[in-house]
Design brief:
The protein is 51% helix and 9% strand. By secondary structure, it is of the alpha/beta class.
């Protein structure tokens, strides 16, 4: 794991104080200026994790407001900090530190954080240009993961891509959508729990109704110890949104990347 600055924050029972929050903001700004990309600070990720795990549901949006007031941009919170907290929730479940119900509540609160950030984190301040590239982003039917796909959709929209997000849509309805609405790319966000056969059917239908439009499969399914591209027929399998966008030639504007741990 990369070395992170040691900051003295308050205890787990007390939210970050104003002075400490300001220090985090200044440090994050320095890191952006020096490295060209923001770095998720472990103390702040920990505070967000505590907020979404707290019995008080008001703590999470209040924490978002404090981070925004400290000068950390909404898109940085959405792109970097919220995914980092989601990974921490997943780790807590895998190591039996948190049960499924609490993880579900925490995940729902992360979704609430995205809504609380308002529209600018995902849409920017300018409308899509004329003849903007289009993408159909699919979360397979019966999938329970939506946070990652929502964040990906926001990142793409900020770059001027018109994204249609279909979550839990049946294969029949997806086929109809593909037959009626041509797009420039199809992205499938899948976890390791979804059937590769279902993903293969989605890819096959995309070929049938959209011709040679590139199809990208991403999400935790990438971690499976199998050749996902070969088994599904996808053109690209990746967890890197910037790589997927470049592969499909949707836009040339670079995405911020989470530093490797």
């Amino acid at each position: 794991m990369s070395q992170r600055p040691a900051l003295c924050l308050n205890s787990a029972e007390t939210p970050v104080g104003g002075f400490a929050m300001k220090a985090l903001s200044i440090l994050a700004t320095k890191q952006r200026n020096s490295s060209g990309s923001p770095r998720a600070l472990e103390p702040l990720v920990l505070e967000l994790y505590r907020a979404v795990s707290d019995l008080d549901p008001a703590r999470a949006p209040a924490m978002v407001d404090r981070i925004l007031d400290a000068g950390i941009p909404a898109e940085e919170i959405a792109d970097l900090y919220i995914p980092a907290v989601a990974r921490r929730l997943g780790d807590a479940w895998c190591t039996d530190q948190m049960d499924f119900a609490k993880v579900s509540i925490g995940s729902a609160r992360l979704q609430g954080m995205l809504r609380h950030l308002g529209p600018n984190w995902c849409a920017g301040n300018t409308p899509p240009r004329a003849h903007a590239p289009t993408c159909l982003l699919i979360v397979p039917q019966e999938a329970q993961h939506t946070l990652g796909a929502t964040i990906v959709a926001g990142q793409m929209r900020r770059q001027g891509v018109v994204v249609t997000l279909e979550i839990g849509t049946s294969l029949q309805d997806l086929s109809y959508i593909m037959s009626q609405d041509p797009v420039d790319a199809v992205f499938v966000s899948a976890s390791s729990r979804e059937s590769l056969e279902m993903i293969r059917t989605i890819v096959k239908n995309a070929r049938k109704f959209l011709g040679d439009v590139p199809v990208v499969v991403g999400g935790n399914v990438v971690s499976l110890d199998v050749n996902v591209a070969e088994l599904t027929g996808a053109d690209l399998v990746t967890q890197d949104v910037a790589e997927a966008i470049a592969f499909c030639a949707l836009t040339a504007r670079p995405l911020q990347r989470m530093p490797a741990e």
